[in-house]
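worker-03 picked up job from queue 'complexes'. Input manifest follows; two sequence lines, order preserved.
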Amino acid sequence: MNELFRRLRYLLNRRRFDQELAQDMDFHREMAAREGRQNFGNPLRLREEARDAWGWTWIDALFQDFRYAARTLRKSPGFTLVAILLLALGIGVNVAAFGFFNLMVLRPLPVRQPETILHFERRAPGNFADNFPYSEVRFYQAHSRSLSAVLALNFDSLVMEGEEKPLHAHFVTANFFSELGGGPALGRVLDPVRDEVLEEELVAVLDHRFWERHFAADPSVIGRAIRLNGKPVTVIGVAGRKFSGLGLDPPDLWLPISQCAFFSKRKQAQEDFSGDGMQVQMWGRLQPGLRPRVAEQELSSLAKELHAQHPNDTWKDESLLSAHGGRAVTVRSEMYPFLGMAGALCVLILVVACSNLGGLLLARGVTREREIAIRVAVGAGRGRLIRQLLTESLVLACLGLAAGMALGSIVLRLLIAWTNLPEWLSAWPDWRVTAFAAGIGLVAAMLFGLTPSLEISKQRHRASLLRKLLIGAQVAASCMLLIAAGLLVRALNHAIYTNPGFEYRQIISLDPRFRGYTPDQARSYFAALRDRLRNLPGVESVALASNPPLGNRWTVITTEIGDRTVDVHINHVDPSFFQTMNIPLLRGRNLARGDTRAIIVSESLARRQWPAVDPVGKPFRMGTDNYMVVGVSGSARLVSPEDSDAVEIYQLADADLSPMVVMVRTSAPPEGMLRPVSAATKAIDPLLFPDVQLMKDSFHAKLRLSEYAALAASVPGVIALLIACLGILGLVSFAVSERTREIGIRMALGAKPSHVLAFVIRQFSFPIAAGLVVGMAGAAALSQVLRRVLYGISNLDPIAYLAALGVFAVAVTLAASLPAGRALGIDPARALRHE
Amino acid sequence: MAKGKTEVLQGTLDLMILKTLHALGPMHGYGIARRIEQLSQEVLVLNEGTVYTSLVRLQQQGSIASGWGVSENNRKARFYSITKRGLKQLDRETENWERISGVIGRVLRLESEE
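worker-03 finished. Artifact:
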């Protein structure tokens, strides 16, 4: 310990110690000289040895190396810039990807104590839901002791007067803002005491961005009444700018859940424990020191009590499961392979960039032969040389790291803005991202710096094996990225252009959102609407369905067909459905009035259930009821255009038409028909606020994830290809300049141009070919993970592979042919004099 | 200068310096080098500068301490003295050395008996 202090003291007072020692030695030599002795030895060398004994020479050496490295890099600015650019790309991509992952998954939401918030789901044998009847939530709130607070949320669309598009509203329990710690930017937010009980006045809290956009940040909106669904609502405040709620998608406004009934009759029954009552999402805050399992168990036993009290309305054997509620996105276990693959793709880019840089360093090492030879002659050991070269790589890595972090943060910022994510997500790197970036930088430095240093210090500058390996690695990595991109693009194309089995481009869907209508009223409304719509110019056909295609509602029953469980989508429709949606009737007849037990099955279901037999007239069992097949329709992927496994069953609509949605097919472009259609509904009942949408918007929304994925894979693929081509170009031209003399001699002796070309390219053909093979194999393995998203195409889709290979081959040929062409233009006479 | 110049191992030089300081009290670098030569009866003639490497090392280990003093001819010089820790090291190393030289001596005598 004391020794450490002494050493540190020396470190801080180095110059003084050195001087004192020099003085001592001088004194000694004077005395010795006076007595005629001259065997002191070389004072300089002795001082060096003394300095070694003090033990800090390695720091000196390090600083020396750093300064030297900086000087060398400054002297070749071209190389340094290229190197930093390569590193910035490789590291930047990784930083952006990890930063995104960090924001979505790792970083907690900006709420109070996010680690104690749990999100609940409920399960029972044969049933699964992530929402609860509100009365059930109130029961838990009253009786739970393991949760200090319970939050509930219900979302809905409300129509504001003067706005064409409906607003997204969240109805939340009154303790929402106080539990999450979100203070108001203006006015007040929901207060757990005041807003728990239903008061005279309807109130709402505006979202900050909504307030900026719609009210131009006008502070006088507080206290003003706005009309929502025809009712006057007082704006009591504006939420803070950085308030996130409990998810990624903040609404336009928040309202107390106790007022939900005023806006939508369908969700009224707050006392209803069954599935007809208001459904909400449930969160809870754990009491301090408890574990989630305790809360789950307590709530499950409370569920049992509840079931005993209301056996007909609640599920039997209901158990509750919790998930971490304090993060933006919870990763389910089925997402792990995708995350792994995305990570692998990013690492591949880093590999490409680093191998490229390694190749550059190797090439540069050859030009420094003389310098290295001098160093060795003056006495540098191999270890010292390696240390110096590694320091250069470290300096490059630091610069590249800084550039990469800047680039990554910029890309992340653009990504956040482009995907319209809320404001509390900041692209600024936090400690996790910084640590990750530093780690990546170190790995990169090792990757591109270590092996070239080892090679160069050996002074065996031929180093051809390493160079070939580096090229092979780059080719393989780029190839894998391109193939992955190709597969995703093909899948996207397939999804967009394959006929999903029904017409969606010319359809408008209209959800009347009845409030308090009796079935008779609903029926007469629809009849009147039908008449009006049919008389509108540009409308071809009108139909009704319970689950609009590409909507967010679906009814699924799981049934056994043969030995497989199949999810069957059920839809209650009126007879004009098939004609309106352009779904062909392949066999049998359409549904007709009075068909209570008749069903129409899709062709995909018919194929599975009754292979090679005509299904018309056959019985089919659903649940406890028996039905008879009267017709077969073409398969239509009504829920998701990417789901090729879908089977459908159509039944005649029930007597109660209240939940139905209207489908309108137009001959004119549907955008222009939105207003006339809305006007038609207003003419019948001006108090209704129906939800009118273009079906092709829903179609594109469903595909958006695939679009993002294809884009996310194509951009790195192209970048990697560019980098690899640059690398190949550099190395080939370097090989040419290395062997200029040899080429000149050969040409002087009469070699044909093709021979010269072959000679130059030959040394690279094997690594490139090997790289391609490895790349393809790697891509085939990686794409196993992608299989679930590659709807409709196999993960070994030949077109994608061939396309990727084709692009690669063209690019590489171009890259190699430029310097090779230069080789042909070498003048033999000059070449012979080339140094 | 004298015949039979012997190379001295660095470790044993440390030992000799400690012994010198212990036996003859604090002195400066030149004095130490002189005394070692004297004690070895002129058999040991070393490059006196090598003493300084040992002195620095011993200082780092904490076996000797240094301070400013005035030399015989009224010059300011650095004087070294042995510390408690140095004494302990001296005892330990002396014991080591005597043990090793005893063993080697025995081995050598064994050979000559053959």
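worker-03 released lock.
Chain B touches chain A through 23 residues (CB under 8 Å).
Chain B has one domain: 10-113.
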